[in-house]
Amino acid sequence: MTTIRPRRSALYLPASNARAIEKARTLDCDVVILDLEDAVAPDQKAAARDAAVAAVRGGGFGHRELVVRANAPDTPWGADDLAALAGSGAAAVLLPKVSAPATLVEARAALGDGPPLWAMIETCRAIVDLPAIADAAGATGLAAFVVGTNDLAKEMRCRPGATRAPLLPVLTQVVLAARMAGLIALDGVCNVLDDEAVVEAECRQGLDWGFDGKTLIHPAQIAAANRVFTPSAAEVEWAQAIEAAFARPGNAGRGAIRVEGKMVELLHLEEARRTLAIAHAVARR
Ligand SMILES: CC(C)(COP(=O)(O)OP(=O)(O)OC[C@H]1O[C@@H](n2cnc3c(N)ncnc32)[C@H](O)[C@@H]1OP(=O)(O)O)[C@@H](O)C(=O)NCCC(=O)NCCSC(=O)C[C@H](O)C(=O)O
Ligand SMILES: [Mg+2]
């Protein structure tokens, strides 16, 4: 079976918040993102960097993938962040406001053979240059695109509203470019903290639009993301039916077969295997 790592729920927290770091070690999210960028005030940047490195070295996050979001390389803190994170053992370094492949190349030079890069896609320039950024993945160890919907909406001057319709063409381009380059694609955050139905609806959009998971800002958002991005019992059953049908001797060598009244092709078998791999990985937690 294909091995796959679920990234259904990726929780940001300010690395300057010791209580949140402690809490993250117990929360049911797949990814923890210690933020050094927008959630941290300028006068706390150095202390937050030290706290993030100490948290990574201290461990205790179990199955959770521990990612650190650095400040952009062109800020007063970016170079020191990358120097500190190079040998830290973080699962990835998330770079904000990546707008060109050159930013990834520079960050890779600073990190050496350190952590893989994840890139925030949150500027208009990045959207226009997405294929070039995605093409730099192999040379720079880029493994994921993470959408920054707040920054994007600000730059575009659009109003996403409840439907996020103005962002749909952009989000679709991010998914396309990520798939082209074999990258993980994580949807942007939902700013609504106290209404799980709203969070769940956004997660559902992200799933339907092709994302692997959603970035989150509060523990109360985790359950909805995990629920939505975990294959449902019906999806698992359907995937198993497809696998079983293709395994029947009578279907050997066939590219298209009938399963429960529907045409199913080898591409659906591939999808089915992916669904089962995710379900299996989630169940192993
Ligand atoms: C948004 C918050 C500032 C809300 O804070 P607050 O109202 O104080 O939270 P609560 O009182 O409801 O907290 C309850 C308990 O949960 C813990 N908590 C809260 N948030 C987190 C978290 N993110 N991770 C871990 N634990 C968290 C509190 O400590 C309480 O615990 P306890 O003491 O046991 O009761 C706050 O939630 C927050 O800071 N969220 C993260 C903000 C952040 O990281 N922002 C930056 C990333 S988002 C972004 O930049 C997106 C992108 O770039 C874009 O452009 O869109
Ligand atoms: Mg942002």
The major sheet is characterized as: 8 strands, parallel, barrel
Number of continuous helical runs: 13
User: What proportion strand?
Assistant: 15-25%
CATH fold topology of the largest domain: TIM Barrel
Describe the oligomeric state of these chains in a short phrase.
single chain
- Strand arrangement, major sheet: 1-2-3-4-5-6-7-8
Q: What are the low-pLDDT stretches, counting only 5+ consecutive residues below 50? A: none
Query: What's the pLDDT, averaged over the residues?
Result: 97
How much helicity do the residues have? 40-55%
Q: What spatial form do the alpha-carbon principal axes imply?
A: globular
User: What is the CATH architecture annotation of the largest domain?
Assistant: Alpha-Beta Barrel
Rg over C-alpha atoms, rounded to the nearest angstrom:
20 Å
Termini separation: 17 Å
CATH superfamily caption of the largest domain:
Phosphoenolpyruvate-binding domains
Count of structural domains: 2
What small molecules accompany the polymer chains? Answer: ligand LIB3CWND, magnesium ion
Cofactor: Mg(2+)
Family: Belongs to the HpcH/HpaI aldolase family.
GO biological process, one term: oxaloacetate metabolic process
GO molecular function, one term: magnesium ion binding
